[in-house]
Amino acid sequence: MEAARMTGSPVRPANPEDADKLLRLRVAAFDGTQLTDDWWETFRNDMRDRLGTDPDLLAFVVPAPDGTLASCAIGIVYRCYRGPTHPAGQWARIHTVATHPAHRRHGHARAVTTTLVHTLRQRGCDPIELRATKAGTPLYRSLGFDLVDNYMTLRSGATGILDTPISPKTSP
Q: What angle do CA 27, 29, 34 make, to 5 degrees?
């Protein structure tokens, strides 16, 4: 936990008992976006089921003095084929970095993010990516993240070529 020593923030791995606290902290990061009950339940259950048992889900937290969480960083390891851009055959995405407004400007986001990045690097993840908010961009740049080409996403329900049935081709 090198980051914790550097900032003085008491970083620790999240555990299943943190699921509700992670949920509240993560929702705070959505800046008032209304979330469905299904989303709340799905996230909470996923965290309870996977934290501490799924080696590909990593989360680090800074506890607050009142028993809540001051800050968290959540990342997921993905497996892929080995190649020049993925030498270890895996990469990672940081899905959430959130700090409660009452605990901002104390180095907690830096501590949890640095701890998560160090852990992902130790696991061999290369690259590590995230989507930065405007507020988070200076922190991530200071940690060495660069803006790289935007990527596009195909979601279920999209219309296009995938709506056309594929007919088997015969070989000559």
A: 50
Query: What order do you get walking across the sheet with 12-13 strand by strand?
Result: 12-13, 57-63, 69-79, 90-99, 128-130
The answer to whether the beta carbons of residues 73 and 25 sit under 8 Å apart is: no
In whole angstroms, give the CA distance from residue 80 to residue 139: 28
Q: Are 52 and 15 in contact (CB under 8 A)?
A: yes
Question: What string of DSSP letters covers 65-127?
Answer: TTSSEEEEEEEEEEE---BTTBTTSEEEEEEEEEE-GGGTTSSHHHHHHHHHHHHHHHTT---
**Run of H or E including 61:** strand 57-63
CB atoms closer than 10 angstroms to residue 31: 8
Tokens for 109, please give them.
Answer: 């986001």
Residue with tokens 């934290």: 51
pLDDT, tens only, 128-138: 999 988 889 99
CB 60 within 8 A of CB 73: yes
Tens digits of residue pLDDT in 73-119: 999 999 999 988 888 899 999 999 999 989 999 999 999 999 999 99
Query: Has residue 165 got a pLDDT over 50?
Result: yes
